[in-house]
Specification:
alpha/beta, 9 strands, binds hypoxanthine, about 30% helix, Rossmann fold
């Protein structure tokens, strides 16, 4: 993923918008509705943008929506690229590089995830406090361009502390119950076995999903500030006596949509930017 490709994608987007976005939103499975709230949207399908891969999973639209949301100019990814779709880690994280090139220094990353922590319930929202990369690889492997970030980037505050506290305060203010916890990123596409879920719990995981970790690693490499929010769409395998289905994931995200929308919109209103 060389710098020219990032610039070409970024220039294509720049030429389509009047105001430069300041905040990036990565919208996970079933959570793309947030993009529908954006005012005077400029919509750019991924397949129009130079070097952008195309999104394939159902529940993901595959387009950028840029415009005003709660007083901020945002760039939303309605659908993301997953490693399990067969994209390289560089392709999965390409949009984050493009966001940085556009001048975006803060992102909100969302996903649907299985609850590992037994005090969670399907439908809970979880503010991500940290993550475990269990994907067996990293988007930062390969030659390092020092202009983009450090060879050995610090990950000790991968999720911005001020953003975490602010998100929790905002949820309290709105009377929306939120959990907080550690997100484990697996490759998927199979859901976990019960034994794997027990292992992930011992490791300190609270929720497990198939995304987010690569994007957050690249965002940290690029010195961007990150807020992460998981929608607990189901309890992870083996916790309840029932099989896991993508339909359940979509149904639950559909149910918490209203809380999710209300929370994220209010967060966007006064998220500290720099
Ligand atoms: N496991 C992994 N990814 C997921 C899950 C899960 O239980 N639910 C939604 N995404």
């Amino acid at each position: 993923m060389d710098y020219t490709m990032i610039q070409e994608a970024s220039n294509y987007i720049k030429n389509k918008v009047a105001t430069m976005p300041e905040l990036g939103l990565v919208l996970g499975s079933g959570l793309g509705v947030l993009a529908e709230e954006i005012n005077e949207p400029v919509v750019i399908p991924y397949n129009e943008i130079p070097h952008f891969p195309e999104s394939t999973v159902s529940g993901h639209k595959g387009q950028l929506v840029i415009g005003n949301l709660e007083g901020k100019t945002v760039l939303a990814m309605q659908g993301r690229f997953h490693f399990y779709e067969g994209y390289t880690m560089q392709q999965v994280t390409f949009p984050i590089r493009v966001m940085k090139e556009l001048g975006i220094n803060s992102i909100i990353v969302t996903n649907a995830a299985g609850g590992i922590n037994e005090s969670f319930q399907p439908g809970d929202l979880m503010i991500i406090t940290d993550h475990i990369n269990n994907m067996g690889t990293s988007p930062l492997i390969g030659p390092n361009d020092e202009a983009m970030g450090a060879r050995f980037p610090d990950m000790s505050t991968a999720y911005d502390k001020e953003y975490i506290n602010y998100a929790i305060k905002t949820a309290e203010m709105l009377n929306i119950n939120v959990q907080r916890g550690v997100y484990v990123g697996n490759t998927g596409p199979a859901y976990e076995t019960p034994a794997e879920v027990r292992m992930l719990r011992i490791w300190g995981g609270d929720a497990v999903g198939m995304s987010t970790v690569p994007e957050v690693m690249v965002a940290n490499h690029a010195k961007m500030r990150v807020l992460g929010i998981s929608c607990i769409s189901n309890m992870a395998a083996g916790i309840l006596d029932q099989p896991l289905t993508h339909d359940e994931v979509m149904e639950t995200t559909d149910k918490v949509k209203q809380d999710f929308l209300q929370l994220v919109k209010r967060i966007i209103q006064s998220l500290p930017m720099n």
